[in-house]
Amino acid sequence: EPEVTQTPSHQVTQMGQEVILRCVPISNHLYFYWYRQILGQKVEFLVSFYNNEISEKSEIFDDQFSVERPDGSNFTLKIRSTKLEDSAMYFCASRGQGAATEAFFGQGTRLTVV
Amino acid sequence: GESVGLHLPTLSVQEGDNSIINCAYSNSASDYFIWYKQESGKGPQFIIDIRSNMDKRQGQRVTVLLNKTVKHLSLQIAATQPGDSAVYFCAEDGTGFQKLVFGTGTRLLVSP
Predict the structure, then answer these.
(1) pLDDT digits (tens, 9 = 90+) for B2-54
(2) Which sign, positive or negative, has the C-alpha torsion B95, B97, B98, B103?
(3) Three-state secondary-structure class, residue B84
(4) Chain A residues touching B46 at Cβ < 8 A
(5) What pairs with residue A7 in β-bridges?
(6) CB of B49 within 8 Å of any CB in chain A?
(7) Ramachandran angles phi, psi of A86, nearest 5°
(8) Which residue has the higher pLDDT, B70 or A39?
(9) Would you tell me which residues 52-71 of chain A have a C-beta closer than 8 angstroms to some C-beta of chain B?
(10) B43 contacts A107? CB cut-off 8 A
(11) How far apart are CA A113 and CA B87, in angstroms?
C-alpha cells in the first residue's frame, strides 16, 4: 500500500538553528500539506502546496517557514530560525486528484527545540 | 471563523460496547468530512469520510452520520475492541483541496 514517508522521525535542534523536515508524498498525488501537532493538542494546518506553489497557508506559517518541492518526489518544510515553541510533531500529507478525496498522512517528525 | 469542535475529550467503554464519538462544526460551507484515528506516536489514519450530500455512510464496523441542520457529525464504532483505543479526530474540508480543519480530538479508551 502506498504511503507518505517522513524523515527524520525525531530531530533535536538548538534554538535559532535551521531545520529541514523531509517528506516523500504518494507518487501520483498532486496536493501536499504540512500540519503540526503540539503535544496533546489538535492537528493544525500549516500550508498547502499545489502545482509548485503555495495555495494556502495559516497564520502559523510566517516568514520563518518555507516549503519546497525540489524534485519530483520530495516535499520539504524548512524552519529558518527555530524557536522553543516550534517543538511539535510535524506531519506531511498528500491527496490525489478528484473531489472529496482523503488526505494520507505520514508518521510525522518530532521536532524538539532546546 | 471556522472551527471544528468535539463534545467530550475522553470516552471510556467496555470491549464489545458500541462507541459514539461526536463532533460539531461551524462552517456551513464545508462539503466533505473525514474521521481520523491517531494512535500514540503515529500520524492520523483515515477511517471513513462523508460528503455533504449524504447523511450516513457505513464502513466496516464504523458508521458516520452527518446532520447538516445542526452541523453535527458522529462516528459510531460497533463492537469496540481494545485495538480501537486511540484519539479520534473529525476534520472538515470546506475549501476543496486547500486544507482540512481538525477538531480537538476525543480519546477513546476500551477496557477488556
Answers:
(1) 455 544 489 999 999 999 999 998 788 888 999 999 998 889 999 999 999 99
(2) positive
(3) helix
(4) 102-104
(5) A22
(6) yes
(7) -80, -10
(8) B70
(9) 55-56, 58
(10) yes
(11) 25
* Spatial distance between the Cα atoms of A109 and A35, rounded to a whole number of angstroms: 11
How far is residue B89's CA from residue B44's CA, in Å, rounded to a whole number?
8
Mean pLDDT score of chain B: 88
| Per-residue model confidence as pLDDT tens digits over A94-112 | 998 766 678 899 999 999 9
What percentage of chain A carries pLDDT values higher than 90?
78
What's the per-residue H, E or C state across A6-47?
EECCEEEECCCCCEEEEEECCCCCCEEEEEEECCCCCCEEEE
Can you give the pLDDT at residue B2? 45
Q: Which three cell numbers stand for residue A32?
A: 501536499
The single residue listed with the C-alpha cell 508518521 is: A107
**Measured between CA atoms, how close is A97 to chain B, in angstroms?**
9
Residue-wise pLDDT tens digits, A51-101: 899 999 999 999 999 999 988 789 999 999 999 999 999 999 999 876 667
CA distance to partner chain A, nearest, from residue B26 (Å): 17
Cβ-defined contact of A102 to B49 (cutoff 8 Å):
yes
Which residues in A9-36 are b (16+ Cβ under 10 Å) and which e? eebebeeeeebebbbbbbeebbbbbbbb
The rounded distance, in Å, linking the Cα atoms of B21 and A22 is 33
B46 contacts A48? CB cut-off 8 A: no
